Amino acid sequence: MTKNQNKDKRKNGDGNELAQDGFVSEKKLRIGITYNLKKEFTQRENQPIDFLEEFDVEETIDAIREALESEGHNVIKLGGDPGLIDRLKQASVDMVFNIAEGLEGRNREAHIPALLEFLNIPYTGSDPLTLSLTLDKAMAKRVVMSQGIPTPPFKKVERIEDLDGLNLHYPLFVKLCYEGSSKGVRLDSKILDRPSLIKKTRWLLDQYGPPLLVEEFISGPEFTVGILGNEDPFVLGVMQIEIKGQSPEDSIYSLEIKREWEEKVMYHCPPSIDPILLKKIEEVALRAYRALECRDVSRVDLRVGKNGTPYFLEVNPLPGLSPVYGDLVIMARSMGWEYPKLVKTIFDYALKRYQKTE
């Protein structure tokens, strides 16, 4: 059951009766999916090759729809362009399954959730504050640092002059501060000296614009942790990302690697590591999830230093749900979860969250 937009209605758009408190009393709900598709944009010659990297494909939306429809729900595609405002007014949905990345700006991932809150429509996933906070990698790191969670020392860079007096130890890692899906991350993103730092920073600023995040590179294995839940979140799985032919000290999960993941990447879930280290990784990921007040689902990225400490890198509260290549989906599959179970679990956590707040 979930909150209907209009408490005065006695039935929703499909004729389901409403309880006296405004909740849908039958299991069948009218669910909208919000998203952004690659095909809705045109890649121009002067744009980076990964300009559309964060957006989804139709197959992912169809897979989510089928998973929810298998539970008896009526599911409609709403998209995520400005016309969504009118479609929401007409659709009379009970809830939204949101995977929209947004279009522009530091707060783009928060645009649709903020609109849904304004219209009093329940939705899956984190709220606008968390989505904006986590998209800004520097801000997210400051928050986790305030909770004593290990994260590499860093500096936010708006222009080349910001590199003057840089008090960080090489090797460094340079990436875009407000982007995900490895946008801007290349095999040369690991920096060994100042000339390389200047060159890479200039290239990123020219191709993508500011700001950038420069942080100390953690020379050790990389892990990503899937987390589900709210009051008592749990680890779905810990997955080690191994780049074939590269040592953990040198491996970079870059755009080039991700685009050829079937040939170049080995995913180990669960990883063959010491149980004590595994527990440390889970604890750091859960602490970051709670510190950033993530909801329903997120994926936390970490690297383990030579001292055995797991360092928080970033969190993705809108992890990709491609049924083929999404890291969270690969992780879930490795843990014995079929794709529909993952989608339905995310939805159920959101549904229960709204039930408890009304």
Tell me what you see in this structure.
With 358 residues, the chain is of the alpha+beta class. It has 3 domains: 30-123, Rossmann fold; 153-216, 2-Layer Sandwich (Dna Ligase, domain 1); 220-357, D-amino Acid Aminotransferase, Chain A, domain 1 (2-Layer Sandwich), CATH 3.30.470. The chain contains 11 helices and 12 strands. It has helices spanning 58-69, 84-91, 108-118, 128-135, 137-146, 194-207, 255-259, 261-264, 275-291, 327-334, 339-357, and strands at 30-34, 74-77, 95-98, 154-157, 172-176, 190-191, 212-216, 222-229, 234-243, 265-268, 296-304, 310-316. A 5-stranded antiparallel beta sheet has the order 10-9-8-11-12, sandwiched between helices. Strands 4-7-5-6 form a 4-stranded antiparallel beta sheet, with helices on one face. It starts with 29 loop residues before the first strand and ends with a helix.
Brief synopsis:
The protein has 358 residues and is α+β, with helices and mostly antiparallel strands. The chain folds into three domains: 30-123, Rossmann fold; 153-216, ATP-grasp fold, A domain (Dna Ligase, domain 1), CATH 3.30.1490.20; 220-357, ATP-grasp fold, B domain (D-amino Acid Aminotransferase, Chain A, domain 1, 2-Layer Sandwich), CATH 3.30.470.20. The chain has helices at 58-69, 84-91, 108-118, 128-135, 137-146, 194-207, 255-259, 261-264, 275-291, 327-334, 339-357; strands spanning 30-34, 74-77, 95-98, 154-157, 172-176, 190-191, 212-216, 222-229, 234-243, 265-268, 296-304, 310-316.
